[in-house]
Write a structure and sequence with these properties.
The complex is a heterodimer of chains A (about 350) and B (about 150). Chain A is α+β, with helices and mostly antiparallel strands and about 350 residues long. Chain A is built from five helices and 20 strands. Chain A has two domains: about 80 residues, Immunoglobulin-like; about 230 residues, paralog of FGE (formylglycine-generating enzyme) (Alpha-Beta Complex). The longest helix of chain B has 29 residues. Classes of the chains: A alpha+beta (about 350), B alpha+beta (about 150).
Chain lengths: ~350, ~150
């Protein structure tokens, strides 16, 4: 009996000790109520940051709803902290036939910070330990995504989006870079993004150039920017280590063999984690569990996230794709991480 | 004190076995052997009876509370390694060969969307809720609005 108690106490201490993020944006005093045709979400947003990203995830009778298609308004998305925040859902517009049943969901928020050189927005992600790899919540698993293994992460910040064409032109103009990139043009020695593609992710960037971009960001700011590690990327894609196959708020994607469009935001406010373009990670491709050794310069690096028009299964958060670091694919971009 | 097997009241103390000897005074019972049927039986000592009456219910309650806490916490966590071992991966998928373009990966396509995944506790930044909705049909509302016009 005493042994059992000790084991239980140790287990409880272990469980309560892990999974507690550091200081982060907080949703407090959440009150959800129906007012006629409307569903009102009143909450207080507590944060030390100037801006937060607020994400709402809804499910009716266990069926996840795509927030992007709902008639949602109010303090959703980029929101300033404060009391008395409100999200309004005009539910009758989405259910003209009426609806009776339980609505469940979660409201989450992350702090945002602005990178000074390019204006890039990063989400502050509280790190913790999580099970990395392909679990039973995935529709399929590949061999290189197994075995599941526990990884502990420190707090870090990750770009809300992939590095955009506009942000990349700032870098190119600063370092006098050359090359050929889709939707970027050099006129009179100045790099510019083509009209309409300012916010599109920059592509055809090889691994070395992506690393150089991070090094340039770090210079003069005393902030260690880098490409994300595989664990950082996967943890963020899964909305903070949740059991989600895809990087969406609901953790799923519409049925279909091919990705039609980038996924919306996930529970951390990160967009296009599944779909969009493939994203470089800083790690060399190696089976999980293999000893950590310094990879040679030409060793394949891991791409994550899938791309628009690609197969849905490749956009799973756990999916790994090895690619030569010198490749300049028009379907490959990157996002940056800042260690904290 | 009667033999639980034959009901005889005649007994003599039985020799303690090695593990019982090692426990010494902590042994919560005394062994006896029935003189009639020669079977060995155990009789709780007074301190253990008191322990059971007073402390045992408290410990049981504590264990139940702790178990509930652990179960509630575990509902939102990723599976433990031993649980993972029991999870059979889906149909095997070969990794794409190096040099292949990214959009030509040999991943199998799921026939259905991903199953609803249990959510892990993501800390202070998330609030969960549940509400029962009763949204009226739009047509019914429009009709009632028309009827209200004088």
């Amino acid at each position: 009996m005493i042994r059992l108690l000790c084991v239980l106490l140790a287990a409880a201490a272990l469980l309560s000790g892990s999974g507690r993020p550091a200081a982060a944006a907080g949703i407090e005093n959440l009150r959800v109520r129906q007012d006629g045709d409307l569903v009102l979400f009143d909450y207080d947003l507590v944060s030390a940051a100037e801006r937060c990203e607020v994400v709402l995830c809804l499910s009716l009778r266990g069926r996840p709803l795509e927030a992007g298609r709902l008639h949602l308004g109010g303090d959703l998305g980029r929101t300033a902290p404060g009391e008395g925040r409100r999200i309004v859902w005009t539910a009758q517009e989405d259910f003209p036939e009426g609806f009776t049943g339980p609505l469940a969901g979660e409201l989450s928020a992350v702090d945002l910070e602005i990178e000074p050189k390019t204006g890039m927005v990063l989400a502050l992600i509280p790190g913790r330990s999580f099970e990395m790899g392909c679990g039973s919540w995935n529709p399929v698993c590949e061999k290189d995504e197994l075995p599941m293994h526990r990884v502990s992460l420190d707090d870090y910040s990750l770009g809300l989006t992939e590095v955009t064409c506009t942000q990349f032109t700032v870098y190119l103009n600063a370092v006098g870079g050359d090359g050929s990139f889709p939707h970027l043009a050099r006129m009179d020695g100045v790099w510019r993004a083509e009209p309409g593609f300012e916010e599109a992710p920059v592509t055809a960037v090889d691994f070395a150039r992506a690393k150089d971009f991070c090094t340039w960001l770090s210079q003069g700011t005393n902030q260690p920017f880098d490409l994300p590690s595989e664990a950082q990327w996967e943890y963020a894609c899964r909305g903070g280590g949740q059991w989600q196959a895809f990087g969406t708020a609901t953790g799923s994607l519409p049925p279909g063999e091919l990705l039609a469009a980038p996924s919306g935001t996930n529970l951390l406010g990160l967009s296009a984690m599944s779909g969009g373009v493939w994203e470089w990670t800083r790690e060399a491709y190696a089976p999980y569990g293999s000893p950590q050794v310094e990879a040679p310069a030409g060793a394949p690096r891991v791409l994550r996230g899938g791309r628009d028009g690609g197969e849905t299964a490749t956009a799973r958060c756990a999916n790994r794709y090895p690619r030569e670091p010198g490749a300049k694919d028009p379907t490959v971009g990157f996002r940056v991480v800042r260690e904290r | 004190m009667k033999c639980p097997y034959c009901g005889s009241g005649e007994f003599w103390p039985s020799r303690k076995r090695l593990p019982e000897t090692l426990l010494g005074a902590l042994l919560p019972y005394r062994p006896y052997r029935c003189r009639s049927c020669l079977k060995r039986y155990l009789v709780s000592v007074p301190w253990y009876l008191a322990f059971r009456r007073l402390v045992f219910p408290v410990l049981v309650a504590l264990v139940l509370v702790l178990t509930a806490v652990i179960v509630l916490t575990r509902q939102g966590r990723a599976p433990l390694p031993e649980e993972q071992a029991a999870m059979a991966p889906a149909a095997g998928q070969a990794s794409p060969p190096a040099g292949q373009v990214p959009d030509a990966t040999a991943a199998a396509v799921p026939a259905e969307p991903a199953p609803a995944a249990p959510k892990a506790a993501s800390g202070q930044q998330t609030a969960v809720f549940r509400i029962y909705l009763d949204i009226a049909p739009k047509a019914a509302k429009d009709a009632s609005a028309e009827g209200a016009v004088p």
